[in-house]
Write a structure and sequence with these properties.
Transferase(Phosphotransferase), domain 1; single chain; globular; mainly alpha; about 120 residues; 2 domains
Length: about 120
């Protein structure tokens, strides 16, 4: 939860608290370091900071993917899985469509989110 809440706070701050606002452009699990209390520390490659190719909506989409990674324990793309399970979002949509969202939650989570929340 610290990773999710901390990431959300950072994005809210850089999108709304800074003038001019800043777009991270590369929010993903491999660019977030954590301290001993699981608080996120952001990293961004310099080449992304200069491109201007993405906007704040891409940051918001990316945090959604990060949350799904944490909840499911899966990578966004995993070619070692069966074809229908390679893409995390497609797999999760299928699980929800089949009313199996509770199965999608990572088994080691201390408390599984309710199906409605997922």
């Amino acid at each position: 939860m610290n990773i999710i809440i901390g990431t959300d706070k950072v994005l809210a701050y850089i999108h709304e608290g800074l003038k001019p606002k800043v777009v991270h452009r590369d929010v993903k699990s491999s660019n977030i370091l954590v301290d001993r209390q699981w608080n996120p520390k952001f990293y961004v490659a310099p080449e992304y900071a200069c491109t201007g190719m993405l906007n704040e909506k891409s940051d918001i989409y990316s945090i959604g993917i990060l949350i799904m990674e944490i909840i499911t324990g899966r990578s966004p793309v995993d070619y070692s899985r069966p074809k229908k399970e390679v893409n995390l979002i497609d797999w999760l949509k299928m699980m929800i469509g089949n009313r199996e969202s509770e199965v999608a939650a990572y088994p080691k989570l201390p408390k599984k989110p309710a199906s409605k929340v997922l």
